[in-house]
TrEMBL record:
InterPro entries: Methyltransf_11 (IPR013216), Methyltransf_Superfamily (IPR050508), SAM-dependent_MTases_sf (IPR029063). One of its GO terms (biological process) is methylation. Pfam families: Methyltransf_11. This is Methyltransferase domain-containing protein. Keywords: Methyltransferase, Transferase. Residues 74-168 form the Methyltransferase type domain. It comes from Azohydromonas lata. Residues 1-22 are annotated as: Disordered. GO terms for molecular function: methyltransferase activity. The lineage of its organism: Bacteria, Pseudomonadati, Pseudomonadota, Betaproteobacteria, Burkholderiales. PANTHER family: METHYLTRANSFERASE, METHYLTRANSFERASE DOMAIN-CONTAINING PROTEIN. Residues 13-22 have a biased composition (Low complexity).
Amino acid sequence: MSSTPQAARRGKPAPYAARDDAAAAAPAPMPAHRVVQAYDRWSPLYDLIFGRVLEPGRRAMTRAAAALQPDSLLEVGVGTGLTLAGYPAHTRVVGVDLSAEMLERARTRAAALRGRDIALHLMNAEAMDFPDDSFDCVAMPYVLSVTPQPARLVAEVRRVCRPGGTILVVNHFSGSRFWWLMERAVRSMAQRVGFRSDFGFEEHVLVHDWQLQAVQSVNLFGLSRLVVLRNTKAKA
């Protein structure tokens, strides 16, 4: 993983990149109930369509989690459970998702991992039921740009992650020259499944006061990034 400048490590936002009028006029985020409908509808085909193409990012994330050896880990947006087998066997894993159809497939995968402590819950990650400081590590694979209110999700993730814990984010962020035209071409279609193709790293990661530890490009031609963050917050 690449190291980052000291200013970025302190979580200080870099200057926002200039935006064109089209980006500034991006559609409003999809409401939560429509995100649920979209993923329930896509659940039978999700692994086939998105499984392999996004698998390098998932593997990079689970390797980062394995290096940490956390006692407890929360995965936000666990989906069909494609990452579950990659977490350390001793780690207590909790997964949450909005889609009941996706969770049914995740439960089948979890049942095959005998001897693992895995619990899966139907839950809105923007308003979780867990107490403060419940987890050593929180993983968010491909969820930050599909949640209706990213800032609210970040606040909840930081609340349930212990002080000094690790937050792992895998997501597509705009700004790559290679993907610039693609982001704009697929924006309308992406909105139909609740995905923001034009999603800024500065606005949604660097703007927060957590500690940015590392960033790694993952997936085809750097489509996504694995971001490792230290949850710097005062102890309760």
